[in-house]
What we know:
Layout: H1 5-14, E1 24-26, H2 33-36, H3 39-48, E2 56-60, E3 63-64, E4 71-77, E5 80-85, H4 87-95, E6 99-102, H5 110-123, E7 127-134, E8 149-156, E9 159-164, E10 177-181, E11 186-189, E12 194-199, E13 204-211, H6 216-223, H7 242-251, H8 255-266, E14 287-290, E15 296-299, E16 305-309, E17 312-314, H9 322-331, E18 333-335, H10 336-343, H11 347-359, E19 363-365
Amino acid sequence: MTTDHRWTITVRDALDGALHHTFRHLPAGLPDPGDLFGWDDLARILTDHQLEAPRLQLARHGALVPPATYTRPVTLRPGVVHHQLRPHLLNSELDNGATLALDAVDHCHHRLRRVAHHLEAAFATGVLVTAYASRTPAPGFNRHTDQTDVLVLQLDGSKHWEIHPPTGGAEPTTNATEIVLTPGDVLYLPRGWWHAVTAHAGPSLHLTCALTPHTVLDLLQWLATQPVGAPLRADLPAPRQALPDLVPLLKDPEVVARYRAAQDKALHARPAIDLPTPDERYDKFTQVALVPSRSRLVRHDDGETALHADGDTWPTVPPKRLPVLTALLGQRDTTIGDLAAATGLSVAQVAADVRHLVRHGLAATR
């Protein structure tokens, strides 16, 4: 299943040598695309959620379709107005060549939530999933570049891609590489690569998973906030020794690791609200999933263990919680029974620890 973390590891390994450098087409790289997300899932989200521009947009031939042409204002209560989708007008725009784009769809669909979670763990960065839906071959957006690397997952129909390498900002003049994605195909495209996309024939539904970039500039900006980054905060004209003082820092093999750890700590998880009642029963078959994708335990010299997760820090993790938390960090998706087997604790002891994690938003059960 695509929601299994092993799929994201397979994709990451398949991009070896291409990551951040060149595009790569992975035919049939997505198992069971129809089981991941489909037209009914998209329709349910549009029905059940209050979605406003710019999160939800329609575009045709490179221009955004004014929301007033497919929504109407509805007063929920005095002073609170929501722009409600009008189904017949939305369908009319799609029939007339518009492409629907829905950002952060991973925040309102449970399977996509897990895919994004596992991608964040595999690629060590934040992920934003956008759904694109069209019914005609008309292009929604003009040829453009993105500011992030993207993984494209073709779910239904087919899409024709014209791809050019980076040009430094100028419009490309060389011949494009042309690819047709069919259901189950995966396309990796580094940031800065030009692309133009049209439906190949009939309706098309695909996802783009944007991978937050980490650049040298990001590293320097983070370093400037650290005590050792004082040379970066020197007034201009900088003292003669300021820039040479930076060289040892940038050559420090631990500096990128420390930067990555700081980014992991700051990454906010997609909220998974679970409201366990005091008498709710967990058994060995209860499924448990870790909510933050880039959480980590940090052991200090004083013997205390801290947890960095969801943009926050739990400075002291009680020793009795460590076995279950450590096992969960290693497995991410598991059951209470498997955690009990891994830790040597009873099901009741593991259930108590899981309930504690759920109440703190660190784990979710189902």
